[in-house]
Specification:
The protein is of the alpha+beta class and 165 residues long. It has helices at 4-13, 61-69, 112-126, 136-148, 155-164; strands at 39-42, 49-52, 75-78, 93-96. It has one domain (23-164): Nucleotidyltransferase, domain 5 (2-Layer Sandwich), CATH 3.30.420. The chain is 35% helix and 10% strand. The chain is globular and about 70 Å long.
Length: 165
């Protein structure tokens, strides 16, 4: 049988066979784990989308991103991630859907806009075949600009948008 002598030696030596793949870690990505989390904020109504990469400094970088980019008193729809539980303390109206309980929409409350934009982002970033975590924010801002200005009619309008942003 092909390969049996090799496997017989492993069994005789008492050594465990090698693993075929790296096991992923549990939980969400962090800057320290070299897989930073990318936050997507989508504003309903005008269709503007904001992407940000929270850095490793700070106790709750998601709250920092939201407080920096969203007007106080705004209504936020999120999933059930625990970091969002403190949004009401910071002056936001917060409602969420519980994906763990198979709830994906509750009337007006859903996060499908951010989920499909994040999927577009993943498809777009995959063509760069690995991006350094320190450069990831630049790539995210580039995608944000392309996505938000995709309906701009002429090159001149896009060029003026680059100058004014």
């Amino acid at each position: 049988m092909k390969g049996s002598s090799y496997h017989d030696e492993i069994i005789k030596s008492g050594r465990q066979p090698r693993k075929r793949r790296l096991k992923p870690w549990r939980g969400r990505g962090t800057f320290d784990k070299d897989h930073p989390m990318i936050t997507c904020i989508h504003q309903r109504g005008n269709g503007m989308t904001y992407f940000d990469v929270p850095s490793s400094d700070g106790n709750n970088p998601i709250l920092d991103v939201v407080c920096k980019n969203v007007n106080y008193g705004s209504t936020l729809f999120t999933d059930e991630y625990r970091a969002y539980n403190r949004l009401e303390e910071h002056g936001f109206i917060h409602d969420s859907v519980a994906h763990s309980e198979k709830e994906y929409t509750n009337g007006e409350v859903h996060v499908n806009n951010c989920e499909w934009r994040s999927n577009l982002y993943q498809i777009w970033i995959r063509k760069f075949m690995g991006v350094n975590k320190h450069n990831l924010e630049t790539y995210s801002k580039t995608f944000q600009f392309i996505h938000n200005n995709r309906r701009t009619k002429t090159r001149e309008e896009r060029f003026m948008a680059v100058l004014y942003n």
